[in-house]
Amino acid sequence: MIKILKGHIIHTPTKERFEVHADSYIVVEDEQVVGIYKILPDQYNDQSIIDYGSSIIIPSFIDAHLHAPQYMQMGVGLDLELMDWLNQYTFMLEGRFADVNYAKKVYPHYVDALYEYGTLRSCIFGTIHDEANRYLVHAMKEKGLSGYVGKVNMDRNAPVSLVQTAERSLKETENFIRDFKDDSMVKPIVTPRFAPSCTDELLDGLGRLSVTYHVPVQSHLAENKAEVAWVKTLFPESASYTDVYVKHQLYGPEKTLMAHSIYLDSVEMELAKSAYIYMVHCPNSNMNLSSGIMPVTQFLDEGITVGLGSDIGAGHTLAMQQTITSAIQCSKIRHVLSPKERILSEPEAFHMATKVNGSFFESFGLIGSFETGYQFDALVIKDPSPIMDTLKPVEQLQRFLYCGWTESIQVRYLNGKNI
Ligand code: GUN
Ligand code: FE
What we know:
Structural class: alpha/beta
Strand content: 15-25%
Mean pLDDT: 97
Number of domains: 2
CATH topology of the largest domain: TIM Barrel
Low-confidence stretches: none
Bound molecules: guanine, fe (iii) ion
Number of strands: 17
CATH class of the largest domain: Alpha Beta
Shape: globular
Order of helices and strands: EEEEEHHEHEEHEEHEHHEHEHHEHHEHEE
């Protein structure tokens, strides 16, 4: 089936600039992009056209790091730092998901909000609880959203309601992987919460599951200085925080997302350059918990792959629009304090939230751009302002990113389908 959409088409095949096709056509066959044309080729002459007028059409957003249960907690307790926030708020909240009825109350709101903000694919931490995680997968699919969902693994350093034996945690992870690895919309991802909440036995088993089933990995790394010091005391034989994951096959060979990664030493910076490693910058979370600010342009210029995440509930909004602009603002602050560090450009930050995050979704196809062969995942956006006609397409995009009006999102496409 052929679909032809018309409007101002904007995407970032490369991070250097926005590629803008004003008043152009994008041809989609079944799920994928065929091409973008200023003048429609003759072969499509008798096809109907969906004309979005002066609206902009952009790739839909992808969130590379967030915690579904924490949707209920966004904005709460953010005057604390990481460990106190986890102990005083987060662990208590996540404990409630032992009751699947609690998950049934929360997760529909969470998936509705993802949809509203235009985040149509995401890499999600659930909780340790099997039933609640399975319900989360169900809720995502019901809403027509795609993503990786991870059963969280913890076997120490948390309240009893949130720890399992390594054996049970591994068994439930393996069953979850088996049940969803061939799903076309929501796939499993191996998820040790972070090194401090896992014993070597659990980490070792998780690494083996990732390699055996070719399942990617997500975790947290070097988010907070006290956390980094704690990891040193918990794993005295490891050369670094990164090394804890490396030792257990949780840092490659499968694709791996490491949220935060603010405090890396020079050896860890070298290891971060591996092709299968994605550092996930979560600027809102890092500001809220006073964790620090990733030197993002330095990472990029050294050849490290950096994606973007909302990290709700330490992040206070699901909006990837605002995550993009916060990443830019954080880099501006670093630049002012240390002028040698350059500012993250708008196309670069947009590229992170679309094509870079999308490249983690390899097993779903080509994701995050409008180049030929990519899955057609898109948002159609109409600026609400009465002066809209005087704005260039890129200016409309800038307003959408900074002001983040979700009402401006008129239509959402995933895999070529209007959802
Ligand atoms: N480190 C371990 N768990 C968490 C979490 O839930 N949120 C954040 N921001 N960092 C973590
Ligand atoms: Fe997180």
